[in-house]
Amino acid sequence: MLVMELLRDRGVVVLEPDGPLAAEDFDRLAALVDPYIEEAGSLRGLLIDTRSFPGWDGLDGLFAHGRFVRGHAARVRRVAIVTDSDLAGMLARVAGAVLPPEIRRFASGELEQAFAWILAAETPA
């Protein structure tokens, strides 16, 4: 399951994975962010707060994650991942090399620094 909150006044979505990610999680996330992106043009950032990488609930979850990233990456300025997971850190480095948003990993306990880094990005259009 993916707990999510859109901070409309900041243009930031806060995500907290609570177990393996399912295809439905990405459907709900798209339903949350798509109207905002349509209105504002982009998101300032995504803040992902997770102690460890939760993995996916089967191949459907993995493929839904990929579709969401492919369809939204160009409309997100920054992605901050707050985690101590080495796997999540590695995935962040790989994604940062091939995707448009700036992606940065922060250690657990650096949630405020991660949020400040996102807010330092240009405001959404």
From TrEMBL:
Q: Which domain of life is it from?
A: Bacteria
Record Gene3D superfamilies: SpoIIaa-like domains (3.40.50.10600)
Know the name of this protein? Answer: STAS/SEC14 domain-containing protein
Native organism is Roseomonas fluvialis
